[in-house]
Amino acid sequence: MVYPPVPPLDDRSQLIRENMPLVNLVVQRMVSQVPSFMTKDDMTSAAMVGLIDAANKYDATKGAQFKTFAEYRIRGAIYDEMRKLDWFSRSMREKQNQLTQTMLKLERKLGRSPEENEMADAMDLSLDEYHQLLTKVSHLGCVSLNETLDHSNEGRSFLESLQDSEDPTALDMIESQEMTYILADILEELSEKERLVIALYYYEELTQKEIAEVINVTEGRVSQLHSQALLKLRVKLINSDLYDGD
């Protein structure tokens, strides 16, 4: 693997100084996207690590602006810190795993993503109880578009696997194309509101409160739709054999 040249120390320091405001900007945008246990100071510290990492790894010959590259690294660093804190109780993790396993079985049986009422019936829950469970595990992150596809230090995120690189190998191109097809299949199977929530949350970077106003539902319902959509995403990745998570 050929690594990009590391910028001189003076250049890196200048990049960090000039882009310090970006740290606060990204943190402000992401405050509503992380669980309440993660403080703003936690996020800012992680964001600084992301900015420094971006300065160390930035390669101007790739054509991307540093601000764009740095923002991606900062967001990733905050998500990484959130996952490291391992705050969820064992019982909640078991419930999240139960959700995943139930959806896996139903999808393989039905040949499609199950509806909410089908999930509730399979778990012997009322629809309201199922919705409450989705709300409880909403911050656990069944999968996110920023989550790595494996547990190695070199793990690629779902979004990274869809991005073009400067000189992709044949294998990179095949994997990227395959992941793009999988994402397209997943989006087709999401409900209209689930697709809208994913688009507004990850690409437009709206808060759950803002999304609730856009699609005219409660903020709690947005949380449920988000959890349901991410659950479907994880199951699709598992079925595709491209996900190496637990």
Descriptive overview:
The protein is elongated and about 60 Å long. The protein has 2 domains: 9-84, Rna Polymerase Sigma Factor, Chain: A; 90-240, Arc Repressor Mutant, subunit A (Orthogonal Bundle). It contains 12 helices and no strands. It is 66% helix and 0% strand. The chain is mostly helical.
Q: Which properties best describe this structure?
A:
Rna Polymerase Sigma Factor, Chain: A; disordered C terminus; 246 residues; 12 helices; Arc Repressor Mutant, subunit A; mainly alpha; 2 domains; elongated
Question: Could you state the order of secondary-structure elements as H and E?
Answer: HHHHHHHHHHHH
- Sheet-strand content, in percent, reads under 5%
CATH class category label of the largest domain? Mainly Alpha
Could you give a short account of the major beta sheet? none
Task: Please tally the β strands and state the result.
Answer: 0
Distance between the termini: 28 Å
**Number of spatially distinct domains:** 2
What CATH architecture of the largest domain do you see?
A: Orthogonal Bundle
- The name of the CATH topology of the largest domain is Arc Repressor Mutant, subunit A
* Overall average pLDDT: 76
Query: Radius of gyration in whole Å, from Cα?
Result: 19 Å
Number of helices: 12
Please identify the structural class as seen in this structure.
mainly alpha
Q: How much helicity do the residues have?
A: 55-70%
Oligomer: single chain
Sum up the overall morphology in one term: elongated
Supply the CATH superfamily name of the largest domain: Winged helix-like DNA-binding domain superfamily/Winged helix DNA-binding domain
Are there runs of 5+ residues with pLDDT below 50, and where? Answer: 148-156, 161-175, 242-246
